[in-house]
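RECORD TYPE: inverse folding
INPUT: structure tokens
STRUCTURE:
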């Protein structure tokens, strides 16, 4: 089998998903080509590309911008030329909105491309961002236009599947395949990580790990923490690990609220390093589809408090293996953090149940289900 992957969002969770998927497909004997954009490629994708090349994946750099731009026409032309030169492909798999849009527009315009089964993984529809106003309607119209040129859409959670249905994708075209993770190996010296944060050995850390932007809504977590301070143990620290456009506004708010001794922003950290220093984990996002960090926190046995986003309601039973709270509800978020912070037995019980739950979410399963989909859509009845 010969598969072409196309991606513009060469960073963060999309990059990780792509690296794991391409690696697994090669190990199953698939010839993998990868058209990627270097414009906003991060270090994770850079390292992953080097490993993928060693495995035999054929990468091709094609600059693409995140927002609509006249250069998209040039990108389409170059992508079409690549498909004609390197094809035919058995499957073309586009990831995220920009690559998904360009590839499916190409299918609309080119009969040869249209004849190839085309898989689309949105990795979170832009239309899930309620605050985008008229842009949300425009992106929704584009998705409706391109839906007929999508052989299958892979949703990574029920939330994403429901959004696809709202956007006009027929149920028969939708497949749900959850993300998978590799077993985590926390580094030695977790205590040294906590000491860097200024946390004593007897202290308790409430942790956040992710991009500091509006989607992740770290200010909700900060407000909930401030509300809960009187009920939290005195040595409790909130650590917001990550980088992004809200890092400086958060830092300024800490000082204006007098929380600089109780909240720490260490910047970007690898998941293994940050998670091993946390005692409980919080997700405060406005929307998600399948956050890797939720699975990772559960995999290392951390009790989780999360807003009702992405796959959280599907894999967490509220009060059993985690707490699921409404979005933008700082009162409930504060209450659940206090309950976990003040009850070590509850933390241990929930962490253990979370670790048991997440064992089924493996990379091998994700790759196998994706490969099965590829095989299915190539058959006459697919």
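DESIGNED SEQUENCE:
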């Amino acid at each position: 089998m010969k598969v072409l992957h196309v991606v513009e969002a060469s960073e963060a969770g999309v990059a990780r998903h792509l690296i794991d998927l391409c690696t697994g497909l090669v190990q199953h004997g698939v010839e993998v080509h990868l058209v990627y954009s270097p414009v906003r490629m991060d270090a994770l994708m850079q390292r992953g590309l080097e490993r993928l090349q060693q495995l035999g994946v054929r990468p091709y750099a094609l600059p693409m911008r995140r927002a609509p731009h006249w250069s998209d026409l040039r990108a389409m032309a170059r992508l079409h030329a690549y498909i004609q030169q390197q094809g035919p492909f058995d499957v073309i798999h586009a990831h995220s909105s920009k690559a998904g849009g360009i590839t499916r527009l190409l299918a609309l315009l080119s009969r040869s491309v249209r004849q190839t089964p085309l898989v689309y993984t949105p990795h979170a529809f832009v239309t899930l961002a309620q605050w985008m106003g008229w842009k949300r309607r425009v992106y929704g119209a584009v998705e409706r236009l391109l839906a007929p040129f999508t052989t299958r859409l892979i949703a990574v959670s029920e939330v994403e599947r429901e959004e696809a249905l709202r956007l006009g994708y027929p149920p028969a075209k939708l497949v749900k395949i959850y993300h998978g993770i590799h077993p985590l190996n926390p580094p030695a010296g977790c205590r040294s990580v906590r000491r860097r944060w200024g946390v004593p050995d007897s202290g308790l850390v409430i942790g956040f790990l992710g991009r500091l932007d509006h989607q992740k809504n770290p200010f909700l977590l900060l407000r909930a923490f401030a509300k809960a301070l009187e009920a939290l143990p005195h040595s409790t620290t909130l650590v917001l690990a990550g980088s992004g456009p809200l890092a400086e506004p958060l830092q300024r708010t800490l000082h204006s609220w007098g929380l600089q001794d109780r909240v720490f922003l260490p910047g970007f950290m690898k998941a293994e390093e940050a998670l091993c220093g946390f005692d409980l984990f919080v997700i405060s996002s406005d929307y998600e589809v399948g956050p890797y960090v939720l699975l990772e926190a559960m995999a290392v046995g951390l009790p989780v408090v999360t807003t009702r986003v992405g796959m959280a309601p599907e894999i967490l039973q509220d009060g059993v293996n985690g707490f699921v709270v409404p979005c933008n509800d700082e009162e409930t978020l504060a209450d659940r953090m206090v309950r976990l912070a003040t009850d070590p037995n509850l933390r241990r019980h929930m962490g253990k149940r979370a670790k048991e739950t997440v064992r089924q979410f493996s990379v091998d399963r994700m790759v196998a289900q994706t490969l099965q989909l590829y095989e299915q859509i190539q058959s006459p009845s697919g």
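NOTES: The mean pLDDT is 90.
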